[in-house]
Amino acid sequence: MTLRDLRSDRGSTLPLYIWMTGILLFVAFAFFAFAQAASARNGAQSAADAAALAAAQDSRDELMDGLGLAIGEGDDWLDWLAGDKFEGDGAQEAADALAADNDSAVTALEAAEVDGYPGWRAEIETNYTVGDSIIPGTESKHAKAHATAVIKPRCDVAEDEDPQKAVKFTCDGGESFDFDPDDFDPDDLPEASVLFSVHLAD
To answer: Which is nearest to 122 in space by CA: 88, 83, 95?
Structure first.
Protein backbone atom coordinates (compact mmCIF):
# COMPACT_ATOMS: atom_id res chain seq x y z
CA MET A 1 0.00 0.00 0.00
CA THR A 2 1.39 3.35 -1.01
CA LEU A 3 1.56 6.54 1.02
CA ARG A 4 -1.06 8.00 -1.27
CA ASP A 5 -3.43 5.11 -0.45
CA LEU A 6 -2.96 5.65 3.28
CA ARG A 7 -3.74 9.31 2.96
CA SER A 8 -6.80 8.47 0.91
CA ASP A 9 -8.08 6.05 3.60
CA ARG A 10 -7.56 8.63 6.31
CA GLY A 11 -9.44 11.21 4.29
CA SER A 12 -12.41 8.91 3.77
CA THR A 13 -12.68 7.92 7.46
CA LEU A 14 -12.55 11.47 8.79
CA PRO A 15 -16.12 12.38 7.71
CA LEU A 16 -17.37 9.10 9.19
CA TYR A 17 -15.60 9.87 12.48
CA ILE A 18 -17.12 13.36 12.59
CA TRP A 19 -20.57 11.97 11.79
CA MET A 20 -20.37 9.29 14.51
CA THR A 21 -19.11 11.84 17.05
CA GLY A 22 -22.06 14.09 16.22
CA ILE A 23 -24.50 11.21 16.70
CA LEU A 24 -22.99 10.31 20.06
CA LEU A 25 -23.12 13.91 21.22
CA PHE A 26 -26.76 14.18 20.17
CA VAL A 27 -27.65 10.99 22.05
CA ALA A 28 -25.81 12.26 25.14
CA PHE A 29 -27.65 15.58 25.04
CA ALA A 30 -30.96 13.76 24.51
CA PHE A 31 -30.37 11.58 27.57
CA PHE A 32 -29.47 14.69 29.54
CA ALA A 33 -32.72 16.35 28.44
CA PHE A 34 -34.75 13.33 29.55
CA ALA A 35 -32.90 13.27 32.86
CA GLN A 36 -33.73 16.96 33.37
CA ALA A 37 -37.40 16.28 32.67
CA ALA A 38 -37.45 13.27 35.00
CA SER A 39 -35.83 15.28 37.78
CA ALA A 40 -38.41 18.06 37.35
CA ARG A 41 -41.25 15.53 37.41
CA ASN A 42 -39.90 13.90 40.56
CA GLY A 43 -39.59 17.27 42.24
CA ALA A 44 -43.12 18.18 41.24
CA GLN A 45 -44.50 14.90 42.55
CA SER A 46 -42.73 15.34 45.87
CA ALA A 47 -44.24 18.82 46.17
CA ALA A 48 -47.73 17.52 45.34
CA ASP A 49 -47.42 14.69 47.88
CA ALA A 50 -46.26 17.11 50.56
CA ALA A 51 -49.07 19.58 49.83
CA ALA A 52 -51.80 16.93 49.91
CA LEU A 53 -50.46 15.38 53.12
CA ALA A 54 -50.16 18.79 54.77
CA ALA A 55 -53.80 19.59 53.96
CA ALA A 56 -54.96 16.23 55.30
CA GLN A 57 -52.87 16.52 58.46
CA ASP A 58 -54.26 19.98 59.12
CA SER A 59 -57.79 18.60 58.80
CA ARG A 60 -56.87 15.74 61.13
CA ASP A 61 -55.80 18.33 63.71
CA GLU A 62 -59.18 20.02 63.21
CA LEU A 63 -60.88 16.69 63.87
CA MET A 64 -58.94 16.27 67.10
CA ASP A 65 -59.85 19.76 68.30
CA GLY A 66 -63.49 19.25 67.41
CA LEU A 67 -63.56 15.83 69.03
CA GLY A 68 -62.22 17.16 72.31
CA LEU A 69 -64.74 20.01 72.38
CA ALA A 70 -67.66 17.77 71.43
CA ILE A 71 -66.91 15.24 74.16
CA GLY A 72 -66.46 17.95 76.78
CA GLU A 73 -69.74 19.63 75.82
CA GLY A 74 -71.67 16.35 75.64
CA ASP A 75 -72.40 16.69 71.90
CA ASP A 76 -72.57 13.85 69.40
CA TRP A 77 -68.82 13.34 69.27
CA LEU A 78 -69.01 9.98 67.50
CA ASP A 79 -69.33 11.79 64.17
CA TRP A 80 -66.03 13.53 64.87
CA LEU A 81 -64.41 10.19 65.68
CA ALA A 82 -65.72 8.85 62.36
CA GLY A 83 -63.87 11.66 60.54
CA ASP A 84 -67.00 13.30 59.16
CA LYS A 85 -66.94 16.78 60.70
CA PHE A 86 -63.90 18.74 59.58
CA GLU A 87 -64.32 21.78 57.32
CA GLY A 88 -60.71 22.20 56.25
CA ASP A 89 -60.38 25.89 57.08
CA GLY A 90 -56.60 25.66 57.37
CA ALA A 91 -55.98 23.10 54.63
CA GLN A 92 -55.14 25.61 51.90
CA GLU A 93 -52.61 27.46 54.03
CA ALA A 94 -50.95 24.21 55.09
CA ALA A 95 -50.77 22.94 51.50
CA ASP A 96 -49.37 26.26 50.25
CA ALA A 97 -46.65 26.23 52.90
CA LEU A 98 -45.42 22.73 52.09
CA ALA A 99 -45.54 23.35 48.36
CA ALA A 100 -43.48 26.51 48.84
CA ASP A 101 -40.93 24.53 50.84
CA ASN A 102 -40.55 22.39 47.71
CA ASP A 103 -40.17 25.43 45.41
CA SER A 104 -43.65 24.97 43.97
CA ALA A 105 -47.12 26.52 44.14
CA VAL A 106 -50.54 24.95 44.67
CA THR A 107 -52.72 25.56 41.61
CA ALA A 108 -55.77 23.73 42.97
CA LEU A 109 -56.84 22.12 46.24
CA GLU A 110 -60.12 20.24 46.35
CA ALA A 111 -61.91 18.03 48.84
CA ALA A 112 -61.76 14.41 47.74
CA GLU A 113 -63.13 11.04 48.77
CA VAL A 114 -61.37 7.72 48.24
CA ASP A 115 -63.02 4.42 49.20
CA GLY A 116 -65.40 6.36 51.41
CA TYR A 117 -62.65 8.23 53.26
CA PRO A 118 -62.35 12.03 53.10
CA GLY A 119 -59.23 13.84 52.05
CA TRP A 120 -57.67 16.42 49.76
CA ARG A 121 -56.44 16.42 46.16
CA ALA A 122 -53.64 18.91 45.50
CA GLU A 123 -52.39 20.06 42.11
CA ILE A 124 -49.08 21.90 41.93
CA GLU A 125 -46.74 23.55 39.48
CA THR A 126 -43.04 24.01 40.09
CA ASN A 127 -41.63 27.52 40.35
CA TYR A 128 -38.59 26.35 38.41
CA THR A 129 -38.48 25.14 34.82
CA VAL A 130 -37.09 21.99 33.26
CA GLY A 131 -34.16 24.06 31.98
CA ASP A 132 -32.32 24.51 28.70
CA SER A 133 -31.92 21.42 26.56
CA ILE A 134 -31.88 20.32 22.93
CA ILE A 135 -35.68 19.97 23.13
CA PRO A 136 -37.28 23.32 22.25
CA GLY A 137 -39.42 24.97 24.91
CA THR A 138 -38.03 23.23 28.00
CA GLU A 139 -36.42 26.47 29.19
CA SER A 140 -39.93 27.81 29.98
CA LYS A 141 -41.67 24.53 30.84
CA HIS A 142 -42.83 24.09 34.45
CA ALA A 143 -43.45 20.61 35.81
CA LYS A 144 -46.91 19.76 37.14
CA ALA A 145 -48.19 16.98 39.39
CA HIS A 146 -51.10 16.02 41.61
CA ALA A 147 -51.64 13.87 44.68
CA THR A 148 -54.49 12.87 46.96
CA ALA A 149 -54.18 12.25 50.69
CA VAL A 150 -56.96 10.71 52.77
CA ILE A 151 -57.85 10.70 56.46
CA LYS A 152 -58.83 7.28 57.71
CA PRO A 153 -60.42 6.73 61.16
CA ARG A 154 -58.62 3.97 63.03
CA CYS A 155 -61.21 3.23 65.70
CA ASP A 156 -64.43 1.21 65.66
CA VAL A 157 -67.46 2.21 67.73
CA ALA A 158 -70.71 0.25 67.88
CA GLU A 159 -73.58 2.00 66.09
CA ASP A 160 -75.87 1.75 69.13
CA GLU A 161 -73.48 3.55 71.49
CA ASP A 162 -74.87 6.64 73.24
CA PRO A 163 -72.40 9.56 73.01
CA GLN A 164 -74.02 11.10 76.09
CA LYS A 165 -72.69 8.20 78.15
CA ALA A 166 -69.32 6.54 78.60
CA VAL A 167 -68.18 4.87 75.38
CA LYS A 168 -65.44 2.28 75.15
CA PHE A 169 -63.86 1.52 71.80
CA THR A 170 -60.79 -0.11 70.27
CA CYS A 171 -58.44 1.28 67.62
CA ASP A 172 -56.05 -0.32 65.16
CA GLY A 173 -53.14 -1.81 67.04
CA GLY A 174 -55.37 -3.03 69.85
CA GLU A 175 -55.41 0.16 71.95
CA SER A 176 -58.67 0.70 73.85
CA PHE A 177 -60.13 3.96 75.12
CA ASP A 178 -63.00 4.92 77.38
CA PHE A 179 -64.42 8.44 76.98
CA ASP A 180 -67.03 9.66 79.44
CA PRO A 181 -68.57 13.12 78.74
CA ASP A 182 -69.24 13.53 82.47
CA ASP A 183 -65.61 12.93 83.37
CA PHE A 184 -63.47 14.08 80.47
CA ASP A 185 -60.26 16.05 80.19
CA PRO A 186 -58.97 17.00 76.71
CA ASP A 187 -55.58 15.72 77.86
CA ASP A 188 -57.16 12.27 77.86
CA LEU A 189 -57.09 12.27 74.06
CA PRO A 190 -54.28 10.19 72.56
CA GLU A 191 -52.03 11.36 69.72
CA ALA A 192 -53.88 12.23 66.52
CA SER A 193 -52.13 9.39 64.67
CA VAL A 194 -53.71 6.88 67.07
CA LEU A 195 -57.26 7.89 66.11
CA PHE A 196 -56.72 8.85 62.45
CA SER A 197 -54.19 7.82 59.84
CA VAL A 198 -53.19 10.10 56.98
CA HIS A 199 -51.75 8.58 53.82
CA LEU A 200 -51.46 9.12 50.09
CA ALA A 201 -54.13 7.52 47.96
CA ASP A 202 -52.29 7.61 44.63
So the answer is: 95
Where would I find the H helices in 86-152? 91-101
Q: If the chain, 202 residues long, is cut into consecutive pieces of 10 residues, what is the mean pLDDT of each piece? A: 48 59 55 57 88 96 91 83 88 95 94 94 87 50 89 87 84 85 84 94 79
Q: Which of 43, 62, 198, 59 is nearest to 105 (CA)?
A: 43
Q: Would the pTM of this model clear 0.85, i.e. be above it?
A: no
* Domain locations along the chain: 3-200
Q: Where are the alpha helices (DSSP H) in the chain?
A: 3-73, 78-81, 91-101, 192-195
pLDDT at position 79, please? 87
Rounded to whole angstroms, the Cα distance separating 73 from 81 reads 15
Whole-number Å distance between alpha carbons of 107 and 122: 8
- Integer distance in angstroms from the first to the last C-alpha of the chain? 69
153 Cα distance to chain centroid: 19
- Phi/psi at 88 (nearest 5 deg)? 75, 35
Q: What share of the chain is helix, strand, coil (3-state, %, to 5)?
A: 50, 25, 25
CA distance 145 to 50: 11
